[in-house]
């Protein structure tokens, strides 16, 4: 592909991503994979160049653009003026620029979200800039099979993460799927912040532990390592497809995990035999994902106030279920990969009002930030249920 053809491919992909963001369609990664499956002429260098350009444009624009061409022009004028010279130079590239045509404005987030961050954080500008950056790739050494010290020398360029005791940070060029330590289950892909959520649960061998929103099971597998596969670990989710991916991962990791599919609205019936039995309940609740914008930058374009309202209602519902699952002396951990106050601080305050019997952790809630802890953005609150 010529340089101009790469720009045109990026514009076409941006059109698809913008449309999907407006209508709740597939994620950018999925759309990029589909695009190149039908374009075998694009080599690996072309695919990487187009992908990098697409994500560069997305990261640079806070508001959802009108279309891919406006997005590309706005990005080029702000950050890559050399791209403007490619317009109108190649039949396979973008058409020539027209005076006065629309262009997207640079920014870190939609204005209504920027206002929320500014109201909550004195240093919101630095935080939003960090969320617009690129995330590192982190692994977790699986203590069911190895230690961090044992696997570090086997991964080129790998270094320990600064906070999580089993965390490993990779050099950008490493392909995880080519690593023997990944294929035999000695390491798992997991952001360091996610590892710290699992650590906050304080799961130990012999406990009854329930991961109420397990998804594909990254945190569940970390809990299994903390439990040394001793006790009872139950992974729950409403998404059958996501939950089905946990079985193969658990097998590779050497973990013993029960799974339960939660039928929406019938959670308590499905979990009736577990009420009052859990030593630990983890609620890594569905959320806006504002803390993961480094990995999913187009997620900024998908959010609406209405969606956040639906999510906060669901989060409160899950906390209420989690409290009922706890035994006396049990521990509940509520976490979201969000930095919005209504999903974090305000949600925790509301939970404390509904359940005054819960005792918050002495140190208070944790907020993890990419500009400070170098993790994805998370809110983590722990509680103990009195005996």
UniProtKB/TrEMBL annotation:
Keyword Transport recorded:
no
Which CDD domains does this one have? AdoMet_MTases (cd02440)
> Its Enzyme Commission number?
2.1.1.176
Q: Which GO-annotated molecular functions does the record name?
A: RNA binding; RNA methyltransferase activity
Q: Which biological processes are named by the entry's GO terms?
A: RNA methylation
Q: Which UniProt keywords apply?
A: Methyltransferase, RNA-binding, S-adenosyl-L-methionine, Transferase
Annotated PROSITE patterns: SAM_MT_RSMB_NOP (PS51686)
InterPro entries per the UniProt record, alphabetical: MeTrfase_RsmB-F_NOP2_cat, MeTrfase_RsmB-F_NOP2_dom, RCMT, RsmB-like_ferredoxin, SAM-dependent_MTases_sf
Active-site feature positions: 337 (nucleophile)
Q: What class of enzyme is it?
A: transferase
Q: Which Gene3D superfamilies match?
A: Vaccinia Virus protein VP39 (3.40.50.150)
Which parts of the sequence bind S-adenosyl-L-methionine? 237, 263, 284
All residue ranges annotated as the SAM-dependent MTase RsmB/NOP-type domain in the record: 113-386
Can the keyword RNA-binding be found in this entry's annotation?
A: yes
Against Pfam families, the record matches this protein to:
Methyltr_RsmB-F, RsmF-B_ferredox
As for family, the record states: Belongs to the class I-like SAM-binding methyltransferase superfamily. RsmB/NOP family.
Protein name per Swiss-Prot or TrEMBL: 16S rRNA (Cytosine967-C5)-methyltransferase
